[in-house]
Specification:
There is one protein chain. The chain is of the alpha/beta class. It folds into two domains: about 120 residues, Aspartate Aminotransferase, domain 1, CATH 3.90.1150.10; about 250 residues, Type I PLP-dependent aspartate aminotransferase-like (Major domain) (Aspartate Aminotransferase, domain 2, 3-Layer(aba) Sandwich), CATH 3.40.640. Helices cover about 40% and strands about 15% of the residues. A seven-stranded mixed β-sheet has the order 2-8-7-6-5-3-4, sandwiched between helices. β5, α7 and β6 form a beta-alpha-beta unit. α2 packs antiparallel against α3, α6 runs parallel beside α7 and α13 crosses α14. The radius of gyration is 22 Å and the shape is globular. The two termini are about 20 Å apart.
């Protein structure tokens, strides 16, 4: 196991199949699935294709239950309230499309919400005649209590549900979710937590958290195959929560399983192997370091803080949030982009991100937030990353910004190696 000379971070690249010619600093977008987990999924897929009817009609339910139990144990969640979905956005849509909203109702969200989930909230509210209230959470910020205060200030007597990120996607903030949930639910507001980034990044105990709804991805920090995510619903809210696709379970007369499970566990013919590979991912990642999952989370967080400090020094900006609000993501403000820039679909890449890709083979997101021309660079830390990669990023950022006449920088650049 090699160690970086700066801080002795354990660096493990062999388990992953990432292209070594790239500096991959964007684990937060789609994760990276280790070779061993890919092999576990391949074995499941081969088993399915040897006898599809046996696998899907007879073996499937037991395999799903075993995968669910393993994930529930990792999440600290009652398995009866846990179902698999293809991604956290699907989980958000399932809840929002199931709840009964009407004219005069308010729904709450922050201005750090993930765009896809905000779109889902807007659509449901528009159809119901409900109003969307947006809590403006400051960034940069110096105190996590400001988040609880900002969200609480946006609650109205008509607020029915709040969609709150556990870890914000654009700004990489680990929000004080327990305090937020307690405050909102104390006001009679159900909370739907978008925990897309949280599983595998921060410790979770969903039963103790007690939110009405929690959805998260397994393909990010759990490193499961793409298409593996979950939705957890508290016991008193399960009745009436249904998947976005209505299938056979909707009119099942079975009494050995809940309608909640029957509706979600089969939504039509699909490849279930991403779900069924989640236990292999939990086991494999948990065995990478001697201290197991807690050691892996601590290692990634420490590296993220180190990376953020490297970038802040290079860009001559103060850390935009307290250390306690950092997990395995960190966002750092950049100089505003050119006002005449028109992003190109589908990924709407900033020219700076394209330059980092094309000229330096660095994969890292540069995103507009809260809106153009303001922008951030967001770095991730996974077990295959090391400090030298962030020093290289900082050096290239300085150079590219200087070329564009956008470098309010002081002092010498960090060494690029």
């Amino acid at each position: 196991m090699p160690f970086d000379s700066d801080r002795a971070f354990p660096v493990l690249t062999d388990p992953f199949t990432l292209d070594p010619s790239w500096t991959f600093l964007n684990h937060g977008s789609f994760g990276a699935c280790p070779r061993a987990v890919q092999q576990a999924q391949d074995a499941l897929r081969a088993r399915m294709e040897r006898q599809p009817v046996q696998f899907l009609a007879n073996d499937y339910e037991g395999l799903m239950d075993a995968a669910r139990d393993a994930l529930a144990a990792f999440l600290g969640a009652d398995p009866e309230g846990l179902v698999f979905v293809s991604n956290a956005t699907t989980g958000v849509n399932a809840v929002l499309q199931s709840i009964d909203l009407g004219p005069g109702d308010d729904v709450l969200v922050t201005d750090h919400a993930y765009n896809a989930c905000r779109n889902a909230l807007d659509r449901v509210a528009r159809k119901a005649g409900a109003r969307v209230c947006v809590a403006a959470v400051p960034f940069p910020l110096s105190d996590p209590a400001a988040v609880v205060q900002a969200i609480g200030a946006a609650v109205t007597p008509r607020t029915r549900i709040a969609l709150i990120d556990h870890v914000t996607s654009p700004t990489g903030l680990v929000l004080p979710i327990a305090a937020i949930v307690a405050d909102l639910q104390g006001r009679g507001v159900d909370v739907l937590v978008d925990g897309a980034h949280a599983p595998g990044m921060v410790p979770l105990d969903l039963d103790r958290l007690g939110a009405a709804y929690y959805t998260g991805n397994c393909h990010k920090w759990l490193c499961a195959p793409k298409g593996a995510a979950f939705l957890w619903v508290r016991g008193d809210r399960r009745e009436g929560i249904r998947p976005v696709v209505t299938s056979h379970g909707a009119n099942s007369t079975r009494t050995d399983r809940s309608l909640f499970r029957l509706a979600f566990d089969w939504t039509g013919t699909a490849d279930p192997t991403p779900f069924l590979s989640v236990p292999a991912a939990i086991t494999f990642l948990g065995g990478l370091l001697p201290g197991g999952w807690p050691a892996l989370m601590d290692r990634n967080r420490a590296l993220t803080l180190h990376a953020r400090d490297i970038l802040c020094q290079a860009l001559d900006v103060p850390p935009p949030c307290p250390d306690g609000m950092i997990g395995s993501l960190a966002a750092v403000p950049l100089p505003d982009r050119a006002v005449d820039f028109v992003p190109r679909p589908p990924l709407l890449l900033d020219p700076l991100q394209e330059a980092l890709q094309d000229r330096a083979r660095i994969e890292v997101p540069v995103m507009s937030w809260p809106r153009a021309p303001r922008r951030l660079v967001r770095v991730s830390a996974a077990v295959y990353n090391h400090p030298g990669q962030y020093r290289a990023l900082a050096g290239h950022l300085r150079a590219f910004l200087a070329d564009a006449g956008q470098a309010p920088l002081n002092g010498p650049p960090p060494a690029c190696h």
